[in-house]
């Protein structure tokens, strides 16, 4: 009788440990993404510095810019970093994204302009809390 009782209490103890671990994972947000590093971009910032801070971009492509400028069009490299789903869209899954446009200067990529959509949203959420 004593052996059966110890087996039952051992199983109950294991079940309680598993349940406690599950509760801790839920409370700590095991499914949440780690916070993205913040970046203070500036014109002329090297591409290597952006990549060192944010990691490799999710998507890259080349595009032409400045078609209507006095100096004429120039080719740039666009880096996209995708963030959370955009809460403004209810029926379409559109991700917030941070866009960085680089121009090659002296054999090195230099930041020309950017749009920090995902970082701005993350910052606004952090300020609400």
Helix content: 25-40%
User: How many H/I helical runs?
Assistant: 3
Low-confidence stretches: 29-33
Report the biggest beta sheet as strand number plus sense, adding barrel if it closes. Answer: 4 strands, antiparallel
Estimate the global geometry from the Cα principal axes: globular
Helices and strands: which structural class? Answer: alpha+beta
Strand order of the largest sheet: 1-2-3-4
Amino- and carboxy-terminal Cα gap: 55 Å
Beta content comes to: 25-35%
- Give me the Rg, rounded: 24 Å
What's the average pLDDT? 80
Kindly give the count of domains.
2
Question: SSE string, helix = H, strand = E?
Answer: HHEEEEH
What is the total tally of β strands? 4
Write the layout of secondary structure elements.
Blueprint: H1 2-28, H2 47-54, E1 59-65, E2 74-85, E3 95-105, E4 108-116, H3 117-128
Antiparallel strand pairs: 1-2, 2-3, 3-4
Please tag this protein with its features.
single chain; 129 residues; alpha+beta; 2 domains; four-stranded antiparallel sheet; 3 helices; 4 strands
Describe, in plain words, how this protein is organized in 3D.
The chain is an alpha+beta fold. The protein has 2 domains: 1-31; 47-128, no CATH class. 36% of the residues lie in helices and 30% in strands. It has helices at residues 2-28, 47-54, 117-128, and strands at residues 59-65, 74-85, 95-105, 108-116. The protein has a 4-stranded antiparallel sheet. A hairpin with an 8-residue loop joins strand 1 and strand 2 (74-85). The longest helix is centred in the first third of the chain and has 27 residues, at 2-28. It is globular, with a radius of gyration of 24 Å. The termini are far apart.
